[in-house]
């Protein structure tokens, strides 16, 4: 297949592209047209073995290098990603269908931020000295060893970097499996890391479906698994990792609340609701998909939202003027269409959207339902598409109870001009990542992750170091050692 999007080979192992056409073929489809733009092959047991064993071998010397040396390579890779931002963004758009307008500012750039941040932090990773009278103890911060990263399809470049950067900074090796829906971008991340000087084997990419992910998780050589995916997959991977007490990070799904009080800056609240529901066509785990609007401002909110949605520009996502792309796949589009049908059946009021767009590809109109009640399916289940559920409320106490009445706990947001209330509400949220008068910002300096069924552990920030390293405690006796006999 000769296409500009066709990678050199399916896998990247031990510093080079590797092919094995014995693996099941995986067609890569451009979501904006439905056309096949590349083909890769799923990893065979031999490919999985090569990826794990080369990573395991390479990790030993990598961990012996100084943090400054490791960090320099990561920071060089960050620079290269920024220089190649256009090319990487075009590829991200082909892989996911997200508009270039988004990918050019949110994907390779976010990946580069992670590489730069953890590259800078690598040199600062230390243990501590603990004085115990004349004796003393110290801790060594050591890598975990061989880490497996498994990605979802919505942010393939970002996820590959958010997992790879802290893992490598701490002295680990990583084998990364992208979602089979978006296999292209992680290969570029591996290529750039190695061009930047990463020794061969430290960041390997293998393709495949869930069975390949499961084989990686089950392997006895693996010390840690970091998954971005749905709650059901998370439960399976967590259980598989438990068999050999592997470390885990689980970044899973959500059904996050966004609360808009009647004193809020309405225009900003509408912006927050748009960003938290329609960016990446709604395919964002932390989206604020249950929008609770205080009764007095409900109709003005809906009016302004409907007006602002006239600014949606659908079309070829590679066109920089386009700001709204398709669903990632036909399957995802069908899932979301099913939820839209459920919303109608269960009596929600369709304010706008609700249909497929009259064009090729997997486009759905941005959809807003009002009069949604807590028991409706669209208010309880993660949809992962451009469907906003608007619910109304009267009091703070009532809305807090309803906002937290979910198994998920990824994110939550509040719009209000009342400073005290904003902090009180955030303190009451049962969620890992919260927003006041904004929504969905995810800078690398801020920990990101969920509570309850939405996950375990944190990505980004200093917090991620805890999840890619372990402490060794060393007691040093300076005084005479006494024993009872
Ligand atoms: P899935 O849970 O279907 O898949 C996630 C990854 O796990 C894929 O690479 C998948 O492979 C792999 N996988 C599937 N089964 C297994 C298994 N038994 N063992 C090991 N790996 C397995 O999620 P999606 O790709 O559909 O992504 C959407 C989900 O991701 C949403 O629920 C969303 O909320 C969540 N998400 C969470 C984020 C967060 O940070 N909290 C961020 C982004 C998304 P394959 O798909 O190739 O079969």
Salient structural properties:
16 helices; 485 residues; binds NADPH dihydro-nicotinamide-adenine-dinucleotide phosphate; seven-stranded mixed sheet; alpha/beta
Q: Which hetero compounds are present in the coordinates? A: NADPH dihydro-nicotinamide-adenine-dinucleotide phosphate
Q: How many individual β-strands?
A: 22
Shape: globular
The unreliable regions are none
Derived structural class: alpha/beta
Largest sheet: 7 strands, mixed
The overall average pLDDT, rounded, is: 98
Compute the separation of the termini in Å: 77 Å
Quaternary structure: single chain
Put simply, the count of helices is 16
Q: Give the radius of gyration.
A: 23 Å
Side-by-side strand order of the widest sheet? 14-15-16-13-12-18-19
Helical content (DSSP H or I, runs of 4+): 25-40%
Q: How large is the share of residues in beta strands?
A: 15-25%
Can you characterise this structure?
With 485 residues, the protein is an alpha/beta fold. Helices cover 38% and strands 21% of the residues. The chain is built from 16 helices and 22 strands. It has helices spanning 45-64, 67-83, 85-96, 100-106, 108-122, 156-169, 185-195, 210-218, 231-242, 266-278, 298-308, 330-345, 377-380, 396-404, 419-428, 463-468; strands spanning 11-13, 16-18, 25-29, 36-41, 129-132, 135-143, 146-150, 173-177, 203-205, 224-228, 247-251, 257-260, 290-294, 349-352, 367-370, 387-393, 408-409, 411-415, 433-436, 451-452, 455-456, 469-476. The N and C termini lie far apart (77 Å). The structure holds NADPH dihydro-nicotinamide-adenine-dinucleotide phosphate. Residues 150-154, 177, 179-180, 209-210, 213-214, 217, 228-230, 233, 236-237, 251-254, 285, 382, 384, 410, 450, 455 line the site of NADPH dihydro-nicotinamide-adenine-dinucleotide phosphate.
